[in-house]
# Entry
Amino acid sequence: MGELIEALVLGVVQGLTEFLPVSSSGHLELAKWILQDDAVGQQSLLMTVVLHGATALATVIVFFKDIMVIIKGLLNMAWNDQKAFVLKIIISMIPAALVGLLFEELIESLFSQRIVLVGAMLIVTAILLFFADWAKNTSKSVGYVDAFMIGISQAIAILPGISRSGATISTSVLLGIDRAKAARFSFLMVVPLIFGKLAKDVIDGELMHESVQLLPLFVGFIAALIAGIVACTWMIMLVRRAKLTYFAIYCVIVGLIAILFSSF
# Structure
């Protein structure tokens, strides 16, 4: 029963923090630390991958109509806005894909409850959010160069404590991109990366671990999926209303608490 409750908590944390700009990876590490989850390496990574898969599915559900329009556009022989959007998504994936392939072992080592690192990166996230909320001239669409710059932010956000949605949306807004379009691009750009990572792990056999129990993974997946749908919908409204400062304050508080408590 304890494992199921822990999986439920981790699923809700992942679902909420994947879309809210407070770092899902950082909060997962903090949750594991608070719950005294000693799972490290492959077993801990498995739960993380499964929960990220759930939030990727949540994105597909929330943006289902948009995705259908994109697919319809791709089936059209002529060049159109949908093909241009997909090309921008592909461009945005390049930095994170390169970092993931070249530094996979180093990245995995960071997900071992390094609480000081998480706290420091949460404060960095807060700084990005503060700047983004002050941006005024946000009216343009995502360009090709913008897509690559946003992709660099996504690559940096691999660090636990740097919010992926916070970093990519903040970068978009600071580049002058319309807030609603920034949120839409931020959430859709990560879906191919997550599903690609899942496919790679399945092919490589990375998701197989003799001590893994399937029921906690299922509970965590469902919890993350439901929480993710709610958080994604909520976040779109918040970005439009320029309410990121509140999350910045939250990140500073949690970051400082994490650093202080880890010292003891």
Observations:
- The two ends are 30 Å apart (CA to CA).
